[in-house]
Design brief:
alpha/beta, four-stranded parallel sheet, 4 strands, single chain, about 35% helix
Length: about 240
């Protein structure tokens, strides 16, 4: 909302929806969906709600997309945006999300800001895995086993090649703060590099190396760290969110 109000006239005709993916610590009511807080095993990965309904967090966005398509005839574009875990959600959804039953005149783009890790399209990694064991191509860090381990993907009969094509063909704006460079993560994240900024740059290189025509645009925000407000209210953030 701050980014929407920053420049007069930019985003004035935008509807902003912010779904709240509750976790166990939020004290969900008996009829509410909720997820684990684990950044690699919860709502950011499209896992099913823990309430036993077998309802994926990706399905929540599917439903919102269909509602927007049916109830708002003047909508011409949908932007799925997030920072941190929200960005990890958006990047994975860009590869796995259904985009079902949308009007043909609606364009969809994804704004991915400083995620902690990426679902890479192949098993190639550019980071360091010294002292680690494994290939780190399993979901959520890769896509080799997505159809087998994610019920949402298997319900859509998605194949690995389908997900690769989605990652290549969908319009993704990757926003990276050059100051988001603190060393953090586990062996899986380290395989993509030691910090968020480098991982993002590596992801941009990886998707283009996989397919030079990939519709992924990498934009840096100079000096900004892991701060969602500064990222989204930057000129680059406002442009990605409201202009494209």
């Amino acid at each position: 909302m701050e980014a929407q109000n920053l420049f007069p006239g930019v985003g004035d005709d935008t509807l902003v929806l912010a779904p709240w993916f509750k976790t166990e610590d939020d004290g969900p009511a008996g009829d509410e969906l909720y997820w684990s807080e684990d950044p690699e095993d919860g709502w950011s990965t499209g896992d099913n709600s823990l309430d036993g309904s077998d309802f994926s967090s990706f399905s929540v966005v599917d439903r919102l997309m269909v509602i927007i398509s049916k109830r708002f005839p003047n909508v011409s574009e949908v932007v799925i945006a997030g920072h941190g875990m929200g960005a990890a959600f958006a990047q994975r959804y860009a590869g796995i999300g259904a985009e079902l039953n949308l009007r043909c005149d609606i364009k969809v783009r994804y704004v991915v800001s400083n995620p902690g890790s990426y679902a890479l399209p192949t098993s190639q990694r550019s980071g360091s895995t010294s002292g680690c064991v494994g290939t780190y191509d399993k979901y959520p860090y890769g896509i080799s086993d997505v159809p087998a381990v994610l019920p949402y993907a298997s319900s859509l009969s998605l194949s690995t090649s389908d997900i690769q094509q989605n990652l290549v063909g969908r319009n993704v704006f990757l926003l990276l703060g050059t100051g988001d460079n603190a060393t953090q993560g586990n062996c899986e994240r380290a395989s993509q590099s030691q910090n968020r900024f480098e991982r993002g740059m590596n992801y941009g290189d990886s998707i283009k190396a996989f397919n030079c025509g990939a519709q992924t645009t990498v934009t840096t925000v100079l000096g900004v760290g892991h701060e969602q407000n500064e990222m989204f209210t930057s000129m680059q953030g406002v442009s990605a969110l409201f202009i494209g």
